[in-house]
Amino acid sequence: MKCRGGGMNDAVLHWPASDMPAGRKGANMPAAPNLTLRAIAPGEEAALAQLFQLYCYDNTAWSGEDVLADGRYDVCDAGLAEYVHAPGHTAVWIEVDGALAGFFLTEPGMAGTLPVREFSDFFILQKYRRRGLALEVVRRVLLDSDTPWLVAMFRTDTRANAFWRQAFARLPFARITPWDDASLPQFQLYVLTASPKPAA
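Below the sequence we write its predicted structure tokens.
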């Protein structure tokens, strides 16, 4: 079994463009009610593996991936667990009213010679879509950072590409730079830089 469990192989977001409220760039956005971002703790790796299977199921709308003989998608649970334990990696629950609504994973990476953080995997359960949660998560995480971020979408994933185009239009990033990697032609890549925070 290949060890797929995050990173550039799965850097996609499943969130239809229609789920994003309309509005202009930089406008005050409605805060998602009772939205909490909580680090996935040691001991919660099995729950992450379960939700990652749902994430893979969502992928099949465009990937066409089949399950294995055991009825699971080809994901290495040990690889996923590294996001909980490995230095520089993060695994975060997205919760609404204390219930699990999704997750995201991040890891250190490079865009050429530029150190970046990779927004590796991002998933919202269907029940919690159409509420602006995805945009709010991106706002809280990517805009509240001095480090450039790398986001990647499979070129064939039309929903993810539509979401990020609207996110770029709505959120006040200082710079949005398309990034080409000849070794990853299947991906549309962007390096995102947040505006400097005002001096205290």
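Helices lie at 45-63, 77-85, 133-142, 158-170.
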